[in-house]
Design goal:
- With 362 residues, the chain is mostly helical.
- Helices cover 69% and strands 1% of the residues.
- It has a two-stranded antiparallel ribbon with strand order 1-2.
- A hairpin with a 7-residue loop joins strand 1 and strand 2 (141-142).
């Protein structure tokens, strides 16, 4: 009997045993089975490494030689590390936005959107695309504007398109992450179908006579994916769509090819949707629109008169100053971080608006 067959038998045996076992009722037994499965999967990984030992060894040797050997190339290695960290940062934020991890928070609102707004405000303040210190990949602050000061009534020389192309790379990476984050529902449904499980909710959705608007949208999405998967997924991914998970589940259930689902999701989220979001943020925070919004708010709420403008001016000045590690964090900033942390822990996931990680909702 092969080692692979033995492992498969052990996994099937344990899966049959642990079906009714939970961590709270059988903590020691749960830890035992978890450890056993980890040993089996590590053994599989060891077999895989042994099978491809030569190419893996050569790759690691070349990589170590490039990274750790002194020479003129080290400055390029350092730049490569910075770019890699930059890319991983935005892709992970995109994945977190789609998967949720129990947060229910959208990382575009918390990270990418504010970054585009900041870049737009500085661009119009300097009337030029600003330089980033020390560079784009390890950004700390913007360089001071040049001596050229635009006239208040003059048309800005910086354009929406120019700003868009300067934030396009991070926006694209974030969109790529959101596309990757949409894979779990598709893969889970596909593997369940291949294992012989039937998705009863989808079958009921096809038979039911839906009367609510959301129900009709779900049924339309379900039937559309069956007939025109690529087009329906592309359209669903190109707009803010809380029902997009259903498209992934339906594609997996009907065994739609991976490349069809992923490339439609990728084009919709990483190219179309994120471009629309970026252009909207640039237009909203352009000098003309930002001043109009502030004027409207201050005129509508007299107690905010001049205070909102002063706050925005002080905020802009901070963009040109490097972070001072010796300055103590204000209570407001500290309270805001605690607030965001609480939201990350307690908010429901976008995949299940009815659940919460708080004990009271159990």
């Amino acid at each position: 009997v092969s080692t692979q067959s033995t492992w498969d038998f052990q996994i099937a045996f344990m899966e049959d045993k642990i079906e009714d076992i939970t961590l709270f009722r059988h903590p020691l037994l749960t830890i035992y089975y978890f450890g056993s499965l980890m040993i089996i999967y590590l053994g599989r990984l060891g077999q895989l490494i042994k099978r491809y030992a030569v190419p893996i060894f050569l790759f690691c040797a070349i990589f170590a030689l490039i990274v750790f050997t002194p020479g003129f190339h080290q400055k390029y290695v350092g730049t490569g590390k910075e770019i890699f960290k930059f890319m991983i940062y935005w892709v992970v934020l995109g994945i977190a936005s789609s998967v949720g991890f129990g947060t229910g928070l959208h990382t575009f609102v918390l990270y990418l959107g504010p970054w585009i707004a900041k870049f737009t405000l500085v661009s119009y303040e300097c009337d030029a695309i600003p330089n980033m210190i020390p560079n784009k990949w390890s950004f700390t602050h913007f360089a001071n504007c040049t001596s050229h000061t635009p006239s208040p009534n003059a048309e800005p020389s910086v354009s929406v398109l120019g700003i868009y192309f300067n934030v396009l790379f991070e926006a694209f990476l974030w969109g790529l992450g959101t596309a990757i984050g949409e894979l779990p529902p598709y893969l889970v449904a596909k593997f369940a179908k291949l294992a012989g499980d039937n998705e009863e909710e989808l079958e009921e959705l096809e038979r039911a006579e839906q009367i609510t608007l959301i129900g009709r949208l779900k049924k339309w999405l379900y039937l559309g994916v069956r007939k025109h998967a690529f087009i329906v997924v592309l359209l669903g991914a190109s707009i803010p769509n809380p029902l997009f998970d259903l498209a992934g589940v339906t594609c997996g259930y009907f065994l739609i090819p991976f490349h069809t689902f992923f490339f439609a999701t990728f084009i919709g989220k990483a190219i179309i949707k994120v471009s629309l979001q970026s252009v909207f943020m640039i237009l909203a925070f352009s000098k003309k629109h930002a001043e109009a919004i502030i004027l409207y708010v201050e005129s509508s709420f007299p107690f905010l008169k001049n205070s909102l403008s002063a706050f925005l001016d002080n905020w802009k000045k901070q963009f040109f100053s490097p972070p001072d590690e010796n300055v103590k964090q204000s209570w407001i900033a500290f309270g805001w971080e605690i607030f965001i942390t609480c939201l990350l822990y307690t908010s429901p996931s976008p995949r299940d608006a009815t659940l919460s990680r708080m004990p009271s909702s159990a």
